[in-house]
Write a structure and sequence with these properties.
Number of strands: 2
Oligomer: single chain
Helix content: over 70%
Order of helices and strands: EHHHEHHHHHH
Radius of gyration: 19 Å
């Protein structure tokens, strides 16, 4: 008797996700995402005028963004009576998933290094101060824990459910797989509001779509998203490179 490969399970025996948002729901979700970003951005800028603790406000903005996305997902789940399987939380064989995730992560690193070298060759350098440098720089043990929780846990779980499970999964019904992949990856990257990092995040978005589409599950894309963010966080903290 051959041994079965270990599986990650959320709901045993669920069939692959078959539900997609109609145009009305999809428009409402995209509008909701835009409203969340705009409202939190203006609120943060306003608070910065009256409260000097800028870094605390940036953390509040980041956590509130993920919380708001989670509320948007939960609201749709309740209103439309979806299960988590409908979003893409399906069982997937663990061993081949890990192999594929690590291979694709290595490929994204090669692409990112080539991109950085090209920009450097033309005299472009990353901005010395932006939201991400303020979050990830000047790390203490407390901020490191907060960064790992935010970037390595909350963002992968919430953003993959939203951008891959809901937005890409619905867009491909109307535009086809690759057009939907480009659109969803573009939205995913643009909403990070960092011009220098748009292309690397766009590539990451395409790879995450590929994993979700290949396995019909969010687990592989969440794993890659988490790995990417955790490594970036540890590198920024100087724990992986000196």
């Amino acid at each position: 008797m051959s041994m079965k490969e270990p599986e990650i399970k959320l709901v045993h025996g669920e069939s692959p996700p078959i539900r997609n948002l109609n145009w009305v729901d999809l428009s409402l979700v995209l509008s909701g995402v835009a409203c969340i970003y705009v409202t939190l951005a203006f609120g943060t800028f306003w608070l910065m005028e009256v409260w000097p603790h800028e870094r605390v406000l940036i953390y509040l903005n980041a956590f509130m963004t993920q919380l708001s996305f989670g509320l948007l997902i939960w609201t749709l789940k309740k209103v439309r009576h979806w299960t988590w399987a409908d979003f893409g939380w399906q069982s997937v064989p663990l061993k081949p998933m890990i192999s594929k995730v690590l291979t694709l992560y290595a490929i994204t690193w090669v692409i990112n290094i080539c991109y950085a070298l090209i920009l450097f060759n033309y005299g472009f350098t990353p901005p010395e101060k932006d939201v991400y440098s303020q979050l990830l720089g000047q790390v203490t043990w407390l901020t490191l824990i907060l960064n790992l929780l935010l970037a390595g846990v909350l963002a992968p779980l919430v953003e993959e459910t939203l951008f891959r499970g809901m937005i890409f999964g619905s867009l491909q019904t109307y535009f086809g797989k690759w057009t939907a992949a480009v659109i969803s990856a573009g939205i995913f990257s643009a909403l990070h509001f960092q011009a220098y990092g748009f292309f690397p995040r766009f590539v990451l978005g395409i790879v995450l779509v590929y994993l979700f589409d290949k396995y019909k599950s969010l687990y592989p894309s969440v794993a890659l998203h988490a790995l990417n963010n955790i490594v970036a966080t540890l590198m920024a903290a100087g724990l992986l490179v000196k």
